[in-house]
Design goal:
By secondary structure, the protein is mostly helical. About 45% of the residues lie in helices and about 10% in strands.
Amino acid sequence: MSIDISRVARAFCDLSTGSNSPLKLNHAQQCVAAAFGFKSLAAWQAAKRVDTPVKDNSLFVFINNDLLTTRAQELALSADGVELAAILRQAILGLYPQASIHTSWALRRISIASAVAGLVGLDPISAGDLDDARVEVIENTHGVVQGFCFNFDEPDWQGWADHIRRRHGSLSVYAPASFLQIVKGCEAPTRFYIHGDQHEQEPLKYYCRACDHFEPAEHFSSAVHKDNGQRYFCHLSLWDRATARWKLPQRRPRNAINLLAAQATEERRASEAARSDFHRWIEHQVGRDDAVGFIAKDILRDEAFPTNAQTRDAIISYVEAVATWAEPVDAVKAAWAEFSRSINRPA
């Protein structure tokens, strides 16, 4: 569920008529836009918004007291920021009774764990490390951050899953972009670069994770950089699966220019297409608590494993060449036999 600023502004205007500081509708709109972090109503109207990715989700609302007070002064309103924030809070709760409303003056910059606790309605002390939740940054087509989607659908959060699901309708919890403004240390996130990302100030240089330095494009074609695609996807996965504690103080635009992305994607597509039926089958055995499950994990971790090998002899010969004891060879033989039975193929 996302908040409708126009509806809030109308309710805000209506409620103000019963106070000592009645507002015109256009002034109410300006104040609501400011309270929600926009420098002007025009800035809010110009913002390219995306739909909230989580439906049936209670709202986490942040009121920026400083911007609200400044806008009230610019409009020469008789009410101050405190009075306006109180009326605005009442207007929001009238439209969204389940909203969790916070103000910048009350919070004064809190920790990530405390902010997430406020978001999901849990005590950060009793709930453990809430800032270890996975978080996805939601951006519009222009790369402007719209909000954050926290994911609690993992075993670590089962103790609080029922509470979160009852409160939010799911285990994916959405917070608006203003969430970042209340988190200590995250007001101006530092840029995170993955392997091959273009430097924001020096467009002729790209980040090399292997060297931990920015280099010109030709640097990546050297003999020591044959694993660019693998390094790119490994680094991208690290960013995508990062926890709130690690990710929120940093930023990487979704539309970031990357020197290696296109080639890495094509190489991965070709590699996936060339995978053997056995390699696809063994991928689904990693959860097993037996010899086949153990060898499956080893195979998938082995970057040199011949994923396109189609015959028993080719696969077993490889394992015999790299294994230093008999168990892996016996396990891969057993895996091949089971695989062959599954597709009615002679072992």
